[in-house]
Structure formats: structure tokens, C-alpha cells
């Protein structure tokens, strides 16, 4: 056997050992919950986030099969014992939904689940308002409106884009074009959250609209928006988003989860908050707002026997006067089996499933929230994380390993390793041009709102570009001959305005709130090092070894020249 062959085999063995080590480490990360499969249905509002987190835990051997068929459908499936968990933006209904249309397949009826359950907060976000209005052939991207105006649009009291109320909020004139509101045709958590907001902040307007459409008040909320007039009803969050973005969507406005707008980089409206600032539904603005959210029975004295036990109370969110808050902010639940109670848990649910589900939820509430911003959501703040983990403790086989009282091993971006809430400290403040009353020509100079000289033209709005991706320009004045500050840009990570440095294009980076999770990188580093050694280091080593052996046999020179053989002749090739 030649030395070349022997060396090749030695290298091959080394490569095999390295690749085997990589495989063993990879397998070890997924053995804890091997072959554990969980089934769920529900919220399309939370669907994109749940899908990402499902992929994240697959290496642990946790298989999640989730169908985003809407909150109402998911609750029906779970109540019948067909699922291991469900996702819903609203709780189980104790009575029929007043807005339920005829032929809704039973969704919207009173719900009486036969097994015990808990509500666990999992995804947070703002109800965003996508719109499609073109001015002079260009898509408008800087629209800002008050909640009063939005409610009047969705109750048929404002019909044209050049309505005086819209002009007052926006600060400019829009085309004389009919407004086409786009609503959901299916039972939708997005509808429930928006209608709950209207019921709690504009009760007389919303109640009178419901009375005219369905003959009664829609109650605390409805998952079925009663359409009227020019309204167009569409089935599913993605369909609503696609309808608005289509060429035939001119003049439309619809409510949807911010994730759908952000993915498409589509404009959404800046909504006036109680502090008097127009705000986008960015991750930090929603997180700030949800620090005022409460859980009944956790943050108050609601009894476990009360039908409202563990449900959300968002009244403080709607009225929060922090200038960064986005007023129509909310969160959705996972509904999970609760052991130790009178009705018991579904027979299909085992301790092994409970172990896998508790680890999935632990990941969602902690490290998974670090991905919320890039997915178009907001990280759930500390109070909701603690409340959720307290409910996970009642899951049969709970094995998530996180202490709700300490949270020291929960890498959630809204608080630090000692459990201290940091989002209110780190979230960026709004631009002075976002304050109500500032004109479209507003710019920022020395941290204050100013109106540029009339000699320069202005592109964009003082209220900022409400693009779905959080990008655009805010009062980006151009052509100012004096060289004075020309306005603001918008930070693409936060959607917040940042001050220019005095000249066109000289923008200064904003202070961005940290929204990435604090992941343990040791395993990833080990795997990466081994993989690099196997893939990058071994082939050159093998190649060099073979080259040296060849030279010894052929007498090749070190620099690529050809040397003579022992007999003084050229070696035979």
C-alpha cells in the first residue's frame, strides 16, 4: 500500500471523526423531546410569529403542527378536544357574538369548553391601518390620523379622502376620492381587538353603528365586523393585506397585524395617542403601551371562579400618556390545558406533551421575544411574561425550568437578567415633529421642531412616513439654500425619527432600543468551530499532504517547476 493511499485514509478517518462529533452534538440538542408532536389551530394574527418559533424549537425534537385558521375556529377545535393548544386573540365566549352573521358555521356562538384551560400571553402587537392612496401618481406614505377620524371612517361617517377631518389631522389636502374600508369576513381576533378599542374609547359612535347594522350593541367586542356601504370584507389577514396592496386597492384602508405591512414594506397610518403624538405600531411603541396591560386574577382580585379570570384588561393601554405609546396595542393568547381542576384535561394530552408544550412556551416568552421586532410584533413585557409562566406551571408535565418570581434565565429583551424592566428606559422618544399640530413642513433643529424657510421645498410629512417596514422620511426638506437643518430621517429598526446633522443626507443614527434576545451561544460556537474545521481545514490539509507525496514520487520542484529524476531525465507523467 502506498504512502499516498495510507495518508488519504488517515485524513478520511479524521474527517469522519469530526463529522461524527458534529452529528452527536446536533442529535444531543434534540433528544429531550424526541418524537413529541403537538397540534394547534387558531389566530392568523399570531400566525407568522408562531410559525417562526415552531421552526426554532424543531432541533429540540418538538414538532408543532399549527393551522392559522382564525381565533374563532381555533377555539371551537380546542373546546371539542381536537387540539393540544390553540392560539386566540380573545378569550372563550360566554355568550353569542352579537355581530355573528348568518351562515358562519357556528363560530360566534356561546362557547363552553369541556376541559380546563389557562390563558398564556404569547404575541403582542399593534392593530395597524394599511392604506392605498396615490397623489400625483405616487403612493402616499406619511398619512397620520386621530382615533376619532379612524372610527368615523370605519362607521361610515367619513366617506372621502379629502374630508375636513382627514385634512385637519394630516395637514394637507388629499384627492376627492371615495374611501373603501376593508374589514374581515371571518371570525377574527384583529376585528375583536379593534372593535374592543372602539367600544371602550368611542362607545356612542360604535354602539350606534352596530345598532344600525345588527339591531343591537356589539357588546364588549365582536369578532365579526358588520359591514356596510362601500366596505369590502375579506377572509384572512393576508388576504386583507394583499387586497389593499393590489392595483385595484386604490382608495382602500384596512386594519391588520403590523407584521403583514412590515413584510411588504407597505405604509401604515401614524395614530394619535393620548399624549398628543402620532405613533407607529413599532415594537418599542407597542411594548411601552403594554406595560399598562393587566391580567385579571394576576394583577387584581378577580376570582378563579369568575368567567373573566386570566383575561386581559387593556383599558390602561388605551389611555396611556407616554408619548411613545401606540394606543391600539394588544396581545394574543395560547389556550393550554390546565391540570388539577374539576373538568380535567383532554385525554389526548399527556405529560410528555406537557413537557414539550411548556418548553415551547418558555422559549416563546423568553428568547423568542427577541425575534418579535423583525417579525412585525412587539416583545411581551415583564408583567405579561410572569403572568404567562404562572399559568404554564399548571400544565401537566411542566418542564420549562424558568422561575416566574426571578426570571433570571429568561432572555426577554424588555427586562435584564435581574428582572428589571428596561423597555421604558431604552425605547426611543418620538420626534418633536410627531406632536399634534406640527405642519407637514416641520423639521428638527437642535432637538426642537421648526418650520423650514420658504425658500426650500419639503418632501414628506412632519408626522413621519408610516411605511410598513418602519422606513421613510420625516419632514425631509430639500433645496434649502441656507444650509440649515433639512429635517429628519426615520431609523429603519425603530420607525422613529432621527435628526439630520445639518446637511442633506447627513443623518445621525438613533438610539435603538435593544430588542434581540440574550441567547446562549456556546453550543452554536462549538458546532460552528467543528464544522469549520471539518469543512475548511481538512480539505487543504489533505490536498497539501497529497501534493507532498506526489513531489516525493515525481521529483517535482517546490515552486511548481519540474525537477529531473534520479537518472537525470524528466520523470514520466
From TrEMBL:
<feature type="domain" description="PBP">
    <location>
        <begin position="30"/>
        <end position="354"/>
    </location>
</feature>
<feature type="compositionally biased region" description="Gly residues">
    <location>
        <begin position="557"/>
        <end position="566"/>
    </location>
</feature>
<feature type="transmembrane region" description="Helical">
    <location>
        <begin position="523"/>
        <end position="546"/>
    </location>
</feature>
<keyword id="KW-1133">Transmembrane helix</keyword>
<feature type="compositionally biased region" description="Gly residues">
    <location>
        <begin position="457"/>
        <end position="480"/>
    </location>
</feature>
<keyword id="KW-0472">Membrane</keyword>
<feature type="signal peptide">
    <location>
        <begin position="1"/>
        <end position="26"/>
    </location>
</feature>
<comment type="similarity">
    <text>Belongs to the PstS family.</text>
</comment>
<feature type="region of interest" description="Disordered">
    <location>
        <begin position="553"/>
        <end position="573"/>
    </location>
</feature>
<dbReference type="InterPro" id="IPR050962">
    <property type="entry name" value="Phosphate-bind_PstS"/>
</dbReference>
<keyword id="KW-0812">Transmembrane</keyword>
<feature type="region of interest" description="Disordered">
    <location>
        <begin position="445"/>
        <end position="505"/>
    </location>
</feature>
<keyword id="KW-0732">Signal</keyword>
<protein>
    <submittedName>
        <fullName>Substrate-binding domain-containing protein</fullName>
    </submittedName>
</protein>
<dbReference type="InterPro" id="IPR024370">
    <property type="entry name" value="PBP_domain"/>
</dbReference>
<dbReference type="Pfam" id="PF12849">
    <property type="entry name" value="PBP_like_2"/>
</dbReference>
<feature type="region of interest" description="Disordered">
    <location>
        <begin position="89"/>
        <end position="109"/>
    </location>
</feature>
Amino acid at each position: 500500500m502506498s504512502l499516498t493511499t495510507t495518508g488519504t485514509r488517515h485524513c478520511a478517518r479524521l474527517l469522519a471523526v469530526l463529522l461524527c462529533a458534529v452529528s452527536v452534538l446536533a442529535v444531543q440538542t434534540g433528544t429531550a423531546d424526541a418524537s413529541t408532536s403537538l397540534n394547534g389551530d387558531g389566530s392568523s394574527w399570531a400566525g407568522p410569529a408562531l410559525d417562526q418559533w415552531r421552526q426554532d424549537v424543531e432541533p429540540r425534537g418538538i414538532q408543532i403542527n399549527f393551522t392559522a385558521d382564525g381565533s374563532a375556529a381555533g377555539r371551537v377545535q380546542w373546546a371539542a378536544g381536537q387540539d393540544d393548544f390553540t392560539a386566540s386573540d380573545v378569550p372563550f365566549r360566554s355568550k353569542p357574538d352579537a355581530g355573528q352573521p348568518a351562515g358562519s358555521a357556528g363560530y360566534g356562538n356561546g362557547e363552553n369548553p369541556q376541559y380546563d384551560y389557562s390563558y398564556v400571553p404569547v404575541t403582542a402587537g399593534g392593530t395597524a391601518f394599511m392604506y392605498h392612496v396615490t397623489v400625483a401618481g405616487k403612493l402616499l406614505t406619511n398619512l397620520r390620523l386621530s382615533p376619532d377620524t379612524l372610527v368615523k371612517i370605519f362607521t361610515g361617517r367619513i366617506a372621502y379622502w379629502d374630508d375636513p377631518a382627514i385634512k385637519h389631522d394630516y395637514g394637507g389636502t388629499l384627492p376627492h376620492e371615495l374611501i373603501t374600508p376593508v374589514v374581515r369576513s371571518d371570525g377574527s381576533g384583529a376585528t375583536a381587538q379593534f372593535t374592543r378599542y372602539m367600544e371602550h374609547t368611542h362607545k356612542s359612535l360604535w354602539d350606534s353603528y352596530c345598532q344600525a347594522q345588527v339591531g343591537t350593541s356589539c357588546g364588549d367586542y365582536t369578532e365579526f365586523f358588520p359591514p356596510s356601504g362601500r366596505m369590502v370584507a375579506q377572509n384572512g389577514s393576508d388576504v386583507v393585506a394583499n387586497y389593499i396592496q393590489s392595483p385595484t386597492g386604490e382608495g382602500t384602508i384596512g386594519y391588520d397585524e403590523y407584521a403583514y405591512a412590515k413584510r411588504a414594506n407597505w405604509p401604515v397610518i401614524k395614530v394619535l395617542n393620548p399624549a398628543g403624538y402620532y405613533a407607529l405600531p413599532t415594537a418599542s411603541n407597542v411594548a411601552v403601551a403594554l406595560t399598562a396591560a393587566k391580567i385579571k386574577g394576576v394583577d387584581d382580585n378577580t376570582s378563579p371562579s369568575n368567567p373573566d379570570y386570566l383575561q386581559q384588561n387593556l383599558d390602561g393601554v388605551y389611555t396611556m400618556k407616554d408619548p411613545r405609546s401606540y394606543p391600539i396595542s394588544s396581545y394574543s393568547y395560547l389556550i393550554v390545558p390546565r391540570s388539577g381542576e374539576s373538568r380535567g384535561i383532554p385525554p389526548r394530552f399527556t405529560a410528555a406533551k406537557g413537557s414539550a408544550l411548556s418548553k415551547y412556551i418558555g422559549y416563546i416568552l423568553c428568547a423568542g421575544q427577541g425575534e418579535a421586532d423583525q417579525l412585525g410584533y412587539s416583545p411581551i413585557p415583564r408583567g405579561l411574561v410572569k403572568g404567562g409562566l404562572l399559568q404554564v406551571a399548571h400544565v401537566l408535565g411542566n418542564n420549562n425550568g424558568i422561575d416566574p418570581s426571578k426570571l433570571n434565565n429568561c432572555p426577554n429583551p424588555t427586562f435584564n437578567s435581574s428582572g428589571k424592566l428596561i423597555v421604558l428606559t431604552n425605547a426611543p422618544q418620538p420626534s418633536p415633529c410627531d406632536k399634534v399640530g406640527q405642519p407637514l413642513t416641520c423639521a428638527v433643529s437642535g432637538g426642537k421642531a421648526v418650520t423650514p424657510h420658504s425658500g426650500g421645498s419639503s418632501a414628506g410629512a412632519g408626522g413621519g412616513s408610516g411605511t410598513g417596514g418602519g422606513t421613510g422620511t420625516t419632514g425631509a426638506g430639500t433645496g434649502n439654500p441656507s444650509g440649515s437643518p433639512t429635517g429628519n430621517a426615520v431609523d429603519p429598526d425603530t420607525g422613529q425619527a432621527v435628526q439630520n446633522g445639518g446637511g442633506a443626507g447627513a443623518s445621525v443614527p438613533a438610539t435603538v432600543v435593544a430588542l434581540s434576545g440574550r441567547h446562549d451561544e456556546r453550543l452554536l460556537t462549538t458546532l460552528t468551530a467543528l464544522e469549520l474545521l471539518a469543512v475548511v481545514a481538512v480539505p487543504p490539509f489533505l490536498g497539501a499532504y497529497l501534493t507532498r507525496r506526489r513531489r516525493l514520487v515525481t521529483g517535482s520542484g517546490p515552486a511548481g517547476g519540474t525537477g529531473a529524476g534520479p537518472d537525470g531525465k524528466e520523470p514520466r507523467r
